[in-house]
Write a structure and sequence with these properties.
Helix 3 (about 80-90) links the parallel strand 2 and strand 3. The protein has helices spanning about 40-45, 50-65, 80-90, 110-115, 135-140, 145-165, 185-200, 220-235, 255-260, 285-290, 305-315, 335-350, 385-395, 400-415, 425-435, 480-485, 535-550; strands at about 35, 70-75, 100-105, 125-130, 170-180, 205-215, 240-245, 265-270, 440-450, 455-465, 465-475, 490-500, 505-515, 520-530. The model has no long low-confidence stretch (mean pLDDT about 95). The strands form 3 sheets. It has an 8-stranded parallel beta barrel with strand order 1-2-3-4-5-6-7-8, surrounded by 8 helices. Strands 9-10-11 form a 3-stranded antiparallel β-sheet. It is elongated, with a radius of gyration of 34 Å. It has 17 helices and 14 strands. The termini are far apart. Helices cover about 40% and strands about 20% of the residues. The chain binds zinc ion. Zinc ion (ZN) binds near residues 245 and 281. The site of zinc ion (ZN) has 7 residues, from loops.
């Protein structure tokens, strides 16, 4: 049993007083600057960090998605990171409109090496950080508040001095008060205002103040209050880029990022698919698509989601879970019968560009996926879902009578497979049931028809076991004539023929419900053929075969 938690844990944050908070009434109306920290925070947290080649593939993907701000490594801490940053610089892989960040600790050697790594890059940001929470200051750094301020200013001064003579590069500074949410806001704003004074930011000399939820310790509204409070108290606000870096320890990193955007954050750092230390960072893909489905342009492009997932998985060795927002393979699939029915109706009623489909917030086409996958077939799927997949994927419109029959075959098959049937698996099941059962007793070989309309004669050549057998029948139309050839052991109680597909690939699909005279129960058969006369013959043979398989008719009954 759980022990009393209050004996062990206590709140790790202090709320700021903000009775006139503005953020709750705002809406997200424009995209922030998205900063990917996949190649630094994300990479450092991988059980097997990326190679230089993998990092380059990942970088190219981020560029293609549209990130204009990418943290590319921690070059003073790792030789592979240094080599990677140099390789980007030397191969001119970084476009002129992109800013790239490199993380550095505060000592002189590390800052020198960090600056060396980005020599020649047009828009480099040197990212300094220092823990500002009381916990970190006392337990890890053993510094007074005054000493912390001095350390930060010394670091900023080193960057300023060492980059002063490096012309042609648009140097930016980023400072992160690490453990921001666990810090005293008054201390943080004091340190940051000193940094503002020391760096003297302008539009061409940016200063990013990044406020991380290094560990997520509070609800997103508490974080938003801190961000709004900070925005009100930081000096030279118009020239300071307020950035957030929410981790996801409580599972609310995305919500924290969104509320922080409402509270004034100009820039959001994050990792795709929630990469990063422990539970990872807020995911810019989710944030961007949350905006997109509200009709707000996110300025990131996820239209090639499959490629993005595959590059991500190849480079990181991680997997995107099937229920992951937007990207998971199951998220735009409706399984339950009532959901499928509603989705079917809404898809049929769609007009123009507007998307208005219950249960499915985003058109799968927008991320490069087919709408065909919306209806998944599992044991909960009704006949409507089965019919939808058959029509969407194969152009085969099943009459209601057959839908019900086939659904009864699909249900145990999904249960047996313990999950979902793909459209292909569903087709294979349909084919093995009605069209080409490998265990069928009777096989169609060929036919000839003479006479017409009310008195047609059908000569059939069939394969029965090892033997080829010829039988004939007459009747009102091909269906009756075929039944007559089988000694009239069945009656037709339903027959329908549709076109399947269009143009030169069109085929005839015939559906027959046959009442077996020995037990008065119906059996369904389906025949598909390019020849419109062969399709109904095959439908009757299909039904007869199914009755034989179930032991309701014998070959002797049929005169075979
Ligand atoms: Zn982080």
């Amino acid at each position: 049993m759980f022990a009393d938690p209050s004996a062990k844990y206590t709140k790790q944050y202090q709320r700021v007083a903000l009775p006139d908070r503005q953020w709750p009434d705002r809406e997200i109306e424009k995209a922030p600057t998205w900063s990917s920290v996949d190649l630094r925070d994300g990479n450092q947290a991988l059980p097997s960090p990326m190679s230089v080649v993998q990092k380059r593939n990942y970088f190219d993907m981020l560029k293609q998605i549209g990130f204009k701000d990418i943290e590319i490594g921690f070059p003073s801490a790792s030789q592979p990171d240094f080599d990677f940053v140099r390789s980007l610089a030397d191969s001119h892989a970084i476009p002129d409109d992109m800013r790239v960040g490199v993380l550095s600790q505060m000592n002189e050697d590390q800052i020198s090496r960090t600056i060396e790594s980005v020599r020649g890059i047009k828009n480099p940001t040197i990212h300094l950080y220092l823990g500002t929470s009381e916990q970190f200051r006392k337990i890890v750094l053993h510094k007074t508040k005054k000493e912390i301020v001095e350390m930060v200013l010394a670091g900023v001064e080193m960057v300023r001095r060492k980059t002063a003579d490096m012309k042609g590069q648009n140097w930016g500074l980023e400072f992160s008060p690490e453990h921001f949410t666990q810090s005293d806001m008054k201390d943080v704003v004091k340190i940051c205002n000193e940094v503002v004074k020391a760096w003297r930011p302008t539009k061409d000399r940016p200063l990013i103040i990044n406020l991380p939820a290094t560990v997520e310790v509070c609800t997103p509204n508490v974080y938003a209050d801190m961000i709004e409070w900070f925005c009100r108290h930081v000096e030279n606000r118009e020239n300071v880029v307020v950035s957030v870096h929410p981790h996801n320890d409580r599972g609310t990193g995305v919500a924290a990022a969104e509320m922080a955007m409402l509270a004034g954050a100009d820039r959001v750092e994050g990792c795709l698919f929630g990469g990063g230390e422990r539970t990872g960072n807020a995911d810019p893909m989710i944030l961007a698509l949350n905006m997109y489905v509200q009709g707000v342009a996110p300025n990131l492009d996820f239209s090639k989601m499959e490629e993005i997932i595959s590059t991500y998985e190849d480079c990181t060795g991680m997997k995107v879970p099937p229920r992951y927002p937007y990207a998971g393979e199951l998220v735009s699939m409706a399984f339950s019968g009532s959901h499928q029915d509603a989705v079917n109706k809404a898809l049929a009623a769609l007009q123009g560009e507007k998307w208005d489909v219950p249960y499915i917030p985003m058109d799968p086409n927008d991320i490069g996926r087919s709408r065909d996958g919306i209806i998944g077939v599992n044991s909960q799927s009704g006949k409507g879902g089965v019919a939808f997949v058959m029509e969407q994927n194969f152009g085969l419109k099943l009459p209601k009578e057959i839908q019900k029959d086939f659904a009864q075959i699909v249900q145990p098959a999904t249960e047996e497979k313990g999950g979902v049937l793909s459209p292909k698996q569903l087709w294979d099941l349909f084919e093995a049931t009605y069209l080409n059962d490998p265990s069928a007793a009777i096989r169609y070989v060929s036919h000839e028809i003479c006479g017409k309309d009310k008195s047609q004669k059908v000569d059939l050549t069939l394969q029965v076991g090892e033997q080829e057998v010829r039988i004939s029948g007459t009747g009102n139309g091909v269906v009756e004539a075929t039944i007559d050839a089988f000694k009239g052991k069945v009656d037709v109680d339903f027959f329908q023929q549709n076109a399947m597909g269009t143009g030169t690939n069109a085929k005839a699909a015939a559906f027959a419900s046959l009442a077996v005279k020995t037990d008065e129960e119906s059996v369904f058969g389906v025949g598909i053929d390019e020849d419109t006369a062969a399709a109904p013959i095959k439908a009757v043979i299909s039904g007869v075969n199914r009755a034989v398989k179930k032991g309701r008719l014998t070959l002797v009954d049929l005169g075979l």
